[in-house]
UniProtKB/TrEMBL annotation:
<feature type="domain" description="HTH araC/xylS-type">
    <location>
        <begin position="166"/>
        <end position="264"/>
    </location>
</feature>
<dbReference type="InterPro" id="IPR009057">
    <property type="entry name" value="Homeodomain-like_sf"/>
</dbReference>
<keyword id="KW-0238">DNA-binding</keyword>
<dbReference type="InterPro" id="IPR018060">
    <property type="entry name" value="HTH_AraC"/>
</dbReference>
<dbReference type="InterPro" id="IPR018062">
    <property type="entry name" value="HTH_AraC-typ_CS"/>
</dbReference>
<keyword id="KW-0805">Transcription regulation</keyword>
<dbReference type="Pfam" id="PF12833">
    <property type="entry name" value="HTH_18"/>
</dbReference>
<protein>
    <submittedName>
        <fullName>Helix-turn-helix transcriptional regulator</fullName>
    </submittedName>
</protein>
<dbReference type="InterPro" id="IPR037923">
    <property type="entry name" value="HTH-like"/>
</dbReference>
<dbReference type="InterPro" id="IPR020449">
    <property type="entry name" value="Tscrpt_reg_AraC-type_HTH"/>
</dbReference>
<keyword id="KW-0804">Transcription</keyword>
Length: 270
């Protein structure tokens, strides 16, 4: 855990700050200043107070900015195993709601107080990780409560309780780059393809096949932004044996061909 103050925001502003991903979860809580955040393949500038969650593996770039000469942002990084039941697990691939603008009120004050306590514990000579885990869980509980008040959840809290769906997403992250079909995932989950499709339709309004393809094409977007691999190389890596089929599937989902998308993203993140 660390703080981004005015000096740190200025230092970050002078760095080569390319879109990237990382192997941990990250929670940003802005007390003052602004945050320019490229995530979910678009850029947004938020004014504090705000909360932003960056799931493991998600391509993003942050630029903390001062406003009225102030910048104060909490940054908490942790492995998903640290609080395995976090309600933010589903943001990993399919939920376009990483950034939440909040009000300056008692609720946000509570978030700040908890961050202060976590920071103090984290900087102890022998920090108690069980204390930090409980406090971090409390942060997520309060944030989830605010999401409900802002009507951002669309009953997600109920949907996220589906262990089957969470297990499907874990399997998908493990195998999506291989040529695995719906039957493979259903068998791994000890259920019929029909029931798995019903669960996915209820939660994301997509079939299992559509979700698999969405995951592949999300990774394609990541690779187009973060690597110099050719279109054919990316398509082949993701199991599209023909470049034309990959290009057609990509354009159907995004509205751009892969090469057009790469050019558009270069304009946004340059």
């Amino acid at each position: 855990m660390f703080k981004i103050d005015l000096a740190e925001s200025q230092r970050i502003g002078h760095l080569d700050n390319e879109p990237h991903n990382h192997d941990f979860e990250e929670l940003l809580i802005g007390k003052s200043g602004q945050l320019e955040h490229f995530i979910d393949f678009k850029s947004q500038v938020m004014e504090a107070p705000f909360v932003s969650f960056i799931a493991q593996g998600k391509v993003h770039r942050v630029r903390p900015l001062a406003k009225d000469g102030k910048c104060d942002i909490w940054a908490i990084r942790f492995k998903s195993e640290f609080i395995a039941d976090t309600v933010f697990q589903l943001y990993s691939t399919y939920h376009d709601k990483a950034n939440i603008c909040l009000k300056t009120d008692e609720c946000f004050d509570r978030l700040n107080v908890i961050c202060e306590i976590i920071f103090q514990e984290y900087n102890q000579l022998n920090p108690d990780l069980s204390v930090i885990r409980q406090l971090l869980s409390s942060l997520f509980t309060i944030i989830e409560s605010e999401r409900k008040k802002l009507n951002l959840n669309n009953d997600e809290s109920k949907k996220i309780q589906s262990n089957t769906f969470k297990n499907f997403l874990k399997l998908l992250d493990e195998y999506f780059m291989e040529a695995k079909d719906v039957n493979f995932y259903a068998e791994k989950l000890f259920m019929s393809t029909r029931n798995l499709n019903l669960i996915c339709q209820d939660i994301l309004h997509q079939s299992v096949s559509e979700i698999i393809e969405t995951r592949k094409l999300t990774e394609a977007k990541n690779l187009l932004i973060t690597t110099d691999k050719t279109i054919a190389e990316i398509g082949y890596e993701l199991g599209f044996n023909e470049k034309t089929y990959f290009t057609h599937a990509f354009k159907k989902k995004s509205g751009f061909t892969p090469s057009e998308y790469r050019k558009e993203m270069a304009k946004i993140i340059s």
